[in-house]
Design goal:
With 229 residues, this protein is α/β, with parallel strands linked by helices. The protein is 38% helix and 18% strand.
């Protein structure tokens, strides 16, 4: 099923709330108060950014509805939460490269690539679609070019060390024209940061600076588990 057809179906057929299943809208007025995200700063090693929320129940419902059920209309909810979360990256003095780029809007968004198997299964690229919405809301451009140089395993079932090994050297970045950055990376969820760190490696190997990243959700479970040992 193509992305355009999914969007058409999503727009014209009756829908139900992703939480209580009441007919009428993706998120009903009764449940809407549960889908409020405040945003927070996030770091993985020396790569800094922000996330709109932790991967709580409501965030999981949103992501699952988009990725598993093809309810692309909910990408607007996720995009709005991401854009709002970026406001917290604006300290009074724009001392960091990340905050300076956000303040000046002199950056492009690069989305983390989707695995081929997942792309074929879903029929669309949710992270790429999300990047276009966020870029439009921010008034910046999306820069294509980050791709998987080889197939990788699904990260969700892997340990901390396995995730890093799985992504090592897995991405490449190629652009046409005179693009020279800087870049803000975008993904839907950050856990260990292995995917974003590999994205940064690939982009910076092409001579383009990565100022930071933004995701919809952060799940710190694997990092917390390792730290507690």
């Amino acid at each position: 099923m193509t992305r355009a057809f999914r969007q058409f179906i999503d727009a014209v057929l009756p829908t139900s709330c992703i939480d209580c299943q009441a007919l009428g809208s993706h998120i009903c007025t009764v449940c809407s108060g549960q889908f409020v995200f405040t945003g927070h700063r996030v770091s993985r090693q020396d790569l800094h950014g922000c996330s709109a929320t932790t991967l709580n129940r409501e965030a999981h419902l949103l992501i699952s509805a988009v990725k598993d059920d093809g309810r692309t209309g909910l990408l607007r909810e996720i995009s709005s939460a991401i854009v709002a979360s970026l406001a917290i990256a604006h300290p009074a003095a724009f001392e960091s490269a990340f905050a300076k780029a956000l303040h000046s809007k002199e950056f492009a968004i690069v989305s983390i690539p989707t695995r081929t198997a997942a792309l074929k299964r879903r029929g669309f690229d949710p992270v790429g679609s999300l990047a276009r919405l966020v870029a439009k809301d921010l008034g910046v451009r999306v820069q294509p070019g980050l791709s998987l140089a080889r197939e990788t395993r699904d990260q969700r079932s892997l340990t901390l060390d396995e995730r890093a090994e799985n992504l090592q050297g897995a991405m490449s970045f190629r652009t046409s024209g005179a693009f020279d950055g800087p870049v803000l990376l975008l993904d839907d969820v950050v856990t260990t940061g292995a995917t974003l760190l590999e994205g940064r490696r690939a982009v910076e190997a092409a001579g383009i600076h990565v100022v930071g990243f933004v995701t919809f959700a952060e799940t710190p479970s694997l990092l917390d588990a390792k730290a507690s040992k």
